[in-house]
Fold each of these.
Amino acid sequence: MSMFLETLIGGLLAGTMYSLVAIGFVLIYKASGVFNYAQGSILLFAALTFVSLTGQGVPAFGAIAITIALLVLMAIAIEKLLLRPLTNRSPMTLFMATLGLSYLVEAVAQGIMGSQVRALDLGIDDLPIFVGDIMISQFDLIAAGVALALGIGLSLLFNRTRIGIQLRGVADDTRAALSLGIDINRIWQIVWAVAGIVGLVAGLLWGARQGVQFSLSLVVLKALPVLIIGGFTSIAGAIVGGLVVGAGESLAETYLGPLVGGGITPWFAYALALLFLFIRPAGLFGERQIERV
Amino acid sequence: MSEIDLRIATPVNGTAGLRAAGLAAGTVLILAAPLLASEYWINAIIVPFLILSLAGLGLNLLTGYAGQLSLGAGAFMMVGAYATFSLQLRLPDLPLPLALVVSGLIAAAVGLAFGIPSTRIKGFYLIVSTLAAQFFFEWLFLKFPWFYDGNSSATIALPRGLTFFGLGAETPHGRYYLTLGAVALITLLSFNLVRSQTGRNWMAIRDMDTAAAVIGVPVTRAKLQAFAVSSFVLGIAGSLWAFAYLGSASVQSFGLSRSYQILFIIIIGGLGTIRGAYLGAAFVSLLPLALDWLFQHLFSGHVDAGLLQNIQKGIFGLLIMWFLVKEPEGLARLLGIKPPARRRLFPSSQNQELNP
Amino acid sequence: MTTPVPPALEVRNVSLSFKGVKAISDLSFKVEAREICALIGPNGAGKSSLLNILNGVYVPDSGEIIFEGEHFRRMEPLEAARRGIGRGFQNNALFSGMSVVDNVITGLSRHSRLTLVEEMFRLPRARNEERRFRERAQAVLHLFGLDRHAATIVGTLPYGVQKKVELARAIVAEPRLVLLDEPLAGMNAAEKQEIAAVVARLNKELQLTIVLIEHDIGIVLELAHHVVVLDYGRKLADGPPETIRDNPDVIAAYLGSERAEIAA
């Protein structure tokens, strides 16, 4: 029993790391209807920048400030040069564009800052905590806390602040928002910048866990099942989705894995997502799309 | 006659003879290539170019014509390659060309299975299915030694001494003609297919979405056909890639980056065109060479291989974005080959207006 | 002693809502065989939504549809097409990069009996079917006077001609009921008269039952045998065109803006 609980809790906590990444996607999808494939690359870029700067002796706060500034600039550039020309194009086109963007961002990030693995020390030790028989990773616990805090913070932002409401307006009906005088371009820039910062947080935590290297950008491949399951338009969904995927993967690897030789983690989440697509295409918290002909 | 692609312009007086001569000369050149070009060029440039074109063609049928986004090209190529290996291993008397066809059919069946979700899922959510295929097969072909005959490095390769139609399969000649034959034949068949009712069905699904079913297009059947045919072609491309080009292959040869590469080929070359695959493959094959040459000259050979890779990557990224913004019909349109078609690819589902 | 022909289509107590907004409320009406029935009403009155229900794009929350005597709670788009319900779209479901005749042939898709292999190798059966379909498409084009445009790329044609192509595509598979969504939208007076004449011909010569959504009241009064007025998803009036014209509720629904046109 305790092994089950340990696996489950470990999985749930790991899942919050996925949630953290997924939140960045939700922000952008909510505001511009785009699945931003480049989110992973931006995450990598943010983490690399931080690590490179601190490696050069820049104090942590300074490094964060500079990284955020760069992310803001990036958001503005992306909005002006990519999103605006592609307004009104299909989601598929936009997605493919972000695919191209991800290549560019990765190339720049690694080209400038190199491709070796860097260690990232956030000062959080990965010590085990024992609750009865069950071992829990301290790092995972803190990461989960951060993810939840971020999730709650952003939810409040969406629901309580003026910017948040404008954002939801833009997501709901772009034309109506325009007619209300909302500056859509600014909103998009803000959203992409915030998503970038979320990416920074996620990048730092993931980087601390597994080192800052190229594989960081592959988190995007984990975010997709999370979003399918939790819904693309809800932060709560991203969190729940992450929990489901994390727990699912963990339990599947432990209990199903041995039956087929193990290592099923890479594709299990996708199988789960496929299942959800059949049962609940909009995800647990998502909105149903209405077609018009 | 459908004029979506490959319109042979009606020749102006006097140029008809010239065109025929040009076509004849071209054919002779293509057939005689192994005698004219160096072994290096055949093995390292032309054969992979042809195979990538074939893969692009396969993916274009599914994504460019039928509008079903797929990131699983690598997976289906993998299935084809491993199928050919198993067939050759376990049925050694099976002639190579037949083995290729059967592998294609196996890949088609797999493609069909992973295409079933497309009947319920639309738009870019579909990549979940093809990505699932990608990750699943990367795991499957590594996990079970049966697929690679227990070989210690988990690679697959064809036995020596295979022949087809009297040509040795490992010689440059053999590889070239095998590849050329397959590519030429499949191109012709695809050409016929896209100009038939099935091709129109696919384009209706891509361009008219829900309205397609309303006007009587058998959407479910057509989508599944798209997956099956596309995977068939990709399966053969995968076999050729493994055995006519690489010599020996493993799961890494067909990873996610391969799927990206094929997708890039058709975006750059032109979605929804037959020639787009060729143009894109030519571009993707030649760009690394061009960059190499450029850097050799600019920096006298002192360039970090990693940096070169990154630059290439960056250029691809920029090009993808550029093409999507400016010219969704890719090089095919850019080079002025395509007839003007004010068509918007992939109707926006935000405002489900029916765009012709 | 002719036995009465049952109505081609009956809509019975149909309701539909989206995200809490009621698009159609308890709508009922009948369309007699071989009549032209016009659906009119202000924008957002639920007219297009009704057509979408009939084609199987939307599923009504309640109510049923009776088509040629058979009852349906819901329809599947392909099934609607198979049963003989054709559709013309507001924005034209055409391939702008293809020729006129190829576009029309697309409407025959569900009648194709070919396998992939036959198409790939262009086997005799494939070539025969293609020929037969092309002949049928040409025949329909002839009906619309579009013969000389058969090989023209649709995107290069004027809008009015494109509309005819769209109509040709809608009827090429010989439907018995055709639903037309604002077939005259975006046209000048002369083009409207032309298309209206085509619709009248389709009804008379091909015995087609036609349900059409239209805003031009003048045309509606001339063309339709039967008018149904919708407003906010509810039926406001239902009857021959003359009775609608002077109906105070209808006039009020249009805010009196059509009064002058109607009275003229």
Amino acid sequence: MTDPVAAADAVVAAVDPGLSSPGVESRDVVLVTGPWLGGTTSLIDVLRERLPEHTFVEADELGTAHAPAAVVFVVSAIARLTESDCALVDLAAINTDLVIGVVAKIDAHRNWREVLAVDRTQLAARAPRYQHVEWVGAAAAPDLGEPRLDELVGVLRQRLADPDVQRRNRLRAWEVRLDNGIDRYRADAAGADRQARVTTLRKNRDDILRARRLSKTERTIALRSQIQQARVQLTHFGRNRCTSVRAELAEDASSMRRRRLGEFESYVRTRAEEVVDEADEGITKHLGDAATELGLSAPEQPPPLRAPEFSQPPLKSRRLETQLTMILGAGFGFGVALAVTRLCAGLAPGLTIAGLAAGGLVGLLVTVWVVGIRGLLHDRAVLDRWVTDVAATLRSTVEERVATRVLAAETTLTSDLAAREEAEGATAADRVAEIDAELREHAVAIAKAAVVRDRRVPPLQQALDAVRTELYGSRSAKARTGSDPALS
Amino acid sequence: MGLTEGHQIFVDALTRFAEQSQNARLTSIIVRIAAPLRIAVLGRDGVGRGTVEAALAESGVTVTPDAPAADLHVLVIAETLKPEDHARLADADRPIVMVLNKADLTGLGDGGPLVRAHRRAADCRALTGVPTVPMVGLLATAHLDDELMTALRVLVTEPADLTSTDAFVGTGHSLRPELRQRLLSMLDRFGIACAVLALGEGADDATVPTVLRQASLLDRVVEHIEAAGAPVRYRRLRSTITELHSLAMQSDDDRLTHFLSTDATVLAMMAAAVDVVEAAGVEVDRGDDAAAHLRRAVHWRRYSRGPVSALHRSCGADIARGSLRLLGRVR
């Protein structure tokens, strides 16, 4: 008699000589397994006693690459099979064809026969390979009476003695391995495991490009608005400052005393320089802040401003006016002297001489006073006009300064921004290129996998068909090629 | 004070108030708050979901087939927690009570099936944190006709083979096998043993259903459902009171405002809050003298400011408020 395992391997090798082994190790043991509290432990104890010639193991004593000779699947008779129980059968019987279903605890459950029938139907509906699973009832450790295992023991004895079982087990292992292999090739070719990565990459790529577009627009708008604001605010500030200085100096000029006339000019010049410096500082600070807000370095400080040029106040050139004042003052003094003299002569005719002297004196004093006052008032008026001129010059200087510096800053910041855009654009382009490269790699890998699939799947499928023909007979193998249980 | 009492006191008081004040707008509010909690029974196929549902309906619980509309879920399991049951527990979005059905089939060792079932229910509770209670659904819905009663009396004098279900029907006995089959499907071995034991001790026909009902543990299941429903009832009560406050404001109804601050209302809220915290396993001092009221008020005031859930914070505040009202009454 030929080796049943070799016979099974020969079926596959006939299709593809490269397939030598399903990669599992056949072990001459019976796996007893089932859901928790299903009755596995007590059943295995009794089976070891009743069938000492066979080895019974639980699931944890068996590795994933081991193929037991038979799988005894134990479920409680309390309720029908659940999805999780079925998943357990799939896992336990992955390398083994011979599965025996056991409904345990039949001593306690009055409707165990219905549960058994439902379990049989349910498992058969799950996959074609379970259609011929034998189901038996058992009571391994009843509370009262003797264990009832005869049917199970009989079935196990009979099936384990069947020489065809080993061949079918081997074929089942082959079926699972070939099926898994085909699935893997197909999944690789479909790029199933790469799909998530590819989606993420595409999303990243879109995000990068959109972020670039957005940030470019946002920055340009921000720069323009900052510059406009700076222009408006700084001009406003400069004008205000000039106006307030003009008011202050005009007040000083209107209360001017003759003694301080000389100092006033230098005082006005100092104040004007101060204002220009202040305005300059204000511009530097404001532009620095704007640059910081845009994330750029502050524009360079230009060389300090040359102080504005002012003419001297025109206090000296007033000859005609002085002459006129002198004549009018002298006339007025003469009139006063005449009036005083006449008054004295009228009141005391004896004192005419003294009256004449006093009248002359008073007339002289009045003349001097009138001429002096008129001179001071004239100077004040001249200074006031001069202050206005100075303020106007100052204002135009400050405005020019603001305009020049803001323009310079705009140029600097725009070129800085362009440089930065350039750098970021290069970084983004690099990143997009990297992503594109990876996407290409994935596409190439998927295409390669598709080629591999086209080369490898047909022989595997043929081998699988051959295995299935052996397992199910020729008619059903065709139907199962689509691996759809509903077809069979 | 007992379970559901606080709720009932409030409903009664509100109904009386509505009759006196002839306020038609209160009617719909009363209907809503007086409606019983709706229970949906869930579970895998074959665990006895239908039996538990019928037993609960028979014992006065309002059972609805519409799970999403139910206030409370009852998850029926048998023998063990399967991954499917775990999935249902994980999906639960409302209070849930687990019923370990077929408790009579848990095995005979270690003090009998019910003791083992209680232990297994405690294990399930420890594992999932969901209140779990054993039940024998079959006995809760058993109806014995005269023929079955007569058969049970025969079994008292002539014991049958109860070692297994097949043996009970299959072995020779003076009762017809069909009758034994009927008995078995009505009561199963545990129910037959209980009934026979009761009859042997001299019970009459009328007592046997009571004995079976006791053995079914249905009352404990109902108790657990009531306890699990306490938070739902409390929340309903709270939202009703909020609604009434806004109604009183809108309609400028001084009498309704006064009703909401009467001792009856405040004490009803306290009773509902006590139900909630007791259902969660926290003890409430039941003393009825001034010292006890003060102690309780202080304790629950502190409790409501401790690290507890929003529900318990609110319950603690209600208990403290009620205790102060009681203290004011005693003084």
